[in-house]
Specification:
Layout: H1 2-45, H2 49-75, H3 79-100, H4 120-128, H5 131-153, H6 162-186
Helix pairs in contact: 2-3, 2-5, 3-6, 4-5, 5-6
Length: 188
């Protein structure tokens, strides 16, 4: 009878262990699955070196576009040029803040090395221009400026980071539409 009791205790002990092991295994599996999801979303939310380089270049590029737009708002008398200048400022100001939130900061136009940036002499010429000469120089300069931005935005349109990719695509879309609008203004 002692043997039979020992066997029942042993079987009971195995059953208890088996019932305890199932939840532990399930819990470990759930933890592993959640950590894998966390790691995937974490890697998608981090900004790559390429994303950071794009922001480092685009912030001063956008700052110059805003500087040019401020000149247009102060000098131009053309209602369509004034509206375009406001539109550019309204789009690019928030984009600068967005890119700064990635940890990037603007520089001092980085020697105007980025595509489409106006040189110091071009900016000076724009500042001194008036009337239709100003409007023409502004539109031609901003077309060149936007073409450079579109070229830079190609760096991030396929980024693993959804925010960087979305911003790159938005820059391409809006600035191409503005280029078309500026070309129409030049051709009128």
């Amino acid at each position: 009878m002692v043997c039979e009791c020992e066997n029942k205790i042993l079987l009971y002990s195995l059953e208890v262990k088996k019932n305890l092991i199932k939840p532990v295994i399930f819990g470990l599996a759930a933890i592993l699955a959640l950590s894998a999801c966390s790691s995937d979303s974490q890697s998608q939310s981090e900004f790559s070196a390429n994303d950071q380089m794009f922001a480092q270049m685009m912030i001063p590029h956008h700052e110059q576009a805003i500087e040019m737009s401020n000149l247009a708002l102060a000098i131009s008398k053309d209602s369509e040029v004034l509206q375009l200048a406001e539109q550019i400022k309204s789009a690019q100001g928030p984009e600068i803040e967005q890119m700064k939130s990635w940890g990037a900061s603007g520089s001092d136009h980085a020697g105007h090395a980025m595509g489409g940036m106006l040189s110091d002499s071009e900016m000076e010429e724009l500042t001194k221009a008036t009337g239709s000469d100003f409007d023409r120089l502004f539109l031609e300069g901003m077309i060149k400026h936007h073409e450079g931005a579109i070229e830079m935005a190609q760096m991030v349109i396929d980024s693993d980071n959804a925010e960087a990719a979305k911003l790159g695509k938005e820059i391409v879309r809006t600035q191409q539409a503005e280029i078309n609008q500026m070309q129409d203004l030049l051709n009128r």
